[in-house]
Amino acid sequence: MPAARESLLDSALSAVSTADGRPWSAVRMTDVASAAGVSRQTLYNEFGSKEGLARALVRREADRYLQGVDRVLAAPGASVGGGPLVLVAEWTVSAARSRPLVRALLTGCWTGRLPAPDPAPGRSRLPAQRRADAGPPAPGELIAAVLHRAALALSRGRADEGEEAVDLRYRCEVAVRLALSHVVAPGDRKVGHLVREAVGRAG
């Protein structure tokens, strides 16, 4: 993405992520552009509207969360014996705690402080905006993407059919669902310990 587009998205994210941040409805395009060091016209050229900016911001947060999932699954220290699923669970909890939009994407709980964009009608005339215009993934879609990535990473080099594959997908879902429960209602025990025990018992 062009530097101006990234700067604008960073500026919009900052506006809704700070503890004393304003609700999204009160965030002004002029202020987002000014904080990014570009003109208001540049902002409109990139996103078309405030709603377009919101869709792009939420889509970028979803993409960054999934990139983090890919990163931990590919970590050198990850091993098939439950390690990668522990890392995915820990990343999910960490990302949801530190990034309000990721939490909203995973849980479907949007507050007035966050942009909750609807899909845009039709096809955008702005090439860089077209993917974002599809709107944010629903929680179920985002979770399905995580499960697909985890199962794919862990089954690499092995048969993807039969009992073993079913068991693997089940373990992945146990890990992700435990992480989500920890996001919504944190417990005293760390999610990594819970996932390690649950995945072991699932076998």
What would you say this structure looks like, in words?
64% of the residues lie in helices and 0% in strands. With 203 residues, it is mainly alpha-helical. It has a single domain (57-202), classed as Tetracycline Repressor, domain 2 (Orthogonal Bundle). The radius of gyration is 19 Å and the shape is elongated.
What's the short version?
This protein has helices spanning 3-17, 29-36, 40-47, 50-73, 83-98, 100-107, 139-154, 163-184, 191-202. The chain is mainly alpha-helical. The protein has a single domain, classed as Tetracycline Repressor, domain 2 (Orthogonal Bundle), CATH 1.10.357.
Number of helices: 9
Rough shape?
A: elongated
Main beta sheet: strand number and arrangement?
none
How many DSSP E strands? 0
User: What is the helix fraction of residues, given as a range?
Assistant: 55-70%
Fraction in beta strands: under 5%
Low-confidence stretches: none
Helices and strands: which structural class?
mainly alpha
- Radius of gyration equals 19 Å
- Structural domain count: 1
Distance between the termini: 44 Å
Q: How confident overall, as mean pLDDT? A: 84
CATH class: Mainly Alpha
H/E topology pattern: HHHHHHHHH
CATH architectural category = Orthogonal Bundle
CATH topology: Tetracycline Repressor, domain 2
